[in-house]
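Thread: zinc ion complex, take 2
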Amino acid sequence: MHSRPLIVLLSILLFTPVLSGCIGDEILDDVIPQLKGIPGGLTMACLTDSHDKMVLEIDYEAGYKPETSSTDLLKQRISEVCSFSKGISFEFTETDFADVGTWSADDVREQGWANKQADPTSGKTLRWQLIFPAESNDDDNVLGVAVDASTIAIFGESVDDAAGFLNRPSAEEVENSVIVHEAGHLLGLVNLVYTSPVDHEASDKPGHSNNEDSVMYWAIESVTVANFISGDLPNEFDQDDKDDLAGLAAGTIEVSNQI
Ligand SMILES: [Zn+2]
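Output below.
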């Protein structure tokens, strides 16, 4: 996603119609395209008490179910910045995605929406979907993408390839970090739906942190991750990231593009 001009991508995302299983809805959706939003478009639904329950929908192809350590960490990191009085739960579904070859952002969007179990918001429930296809992104350097307000893909083959020399970092550690990184984009990090009062966005990698100790560091979602990071991979938001989210939650940082 981030190899393309963000502004162009956002324009496309804003006006992509929804796939729907119901004929009546299909007609309606053709007339009034439902906004799928941009990454960060459901940030406030997470950060504020507008929703009291979160469901993380994990749709994976056979053999590509994420590690328990990754999903546990994801839940932990989200619970550190968002609060849901009725908790955060998972729905795991083994899924046969269409055979699209290598995956573009559009493929992720289409296959994501074709397989969503429910709308991203319904009543007071917020749902984010993470899909784990068997194939790679059409840029095989890309480990993960966030394509709209509720949809993420993580590419397991590329995650495995990104493991470092002597398995440091291991594929599991890479997956741990990538899953939190992509969720960070759904939280609007960095500067996706707001402008931080602190200059911590990487100048040549829009939407990413310039701090290699943040999970939002730009190299985290790239196969080069093993080359850029020495020692432990970051798998949590840094103080600037957390301050941005706290400012958004408190209303001291202005937010845009919410759906
Ligand atoms: Zn990223």
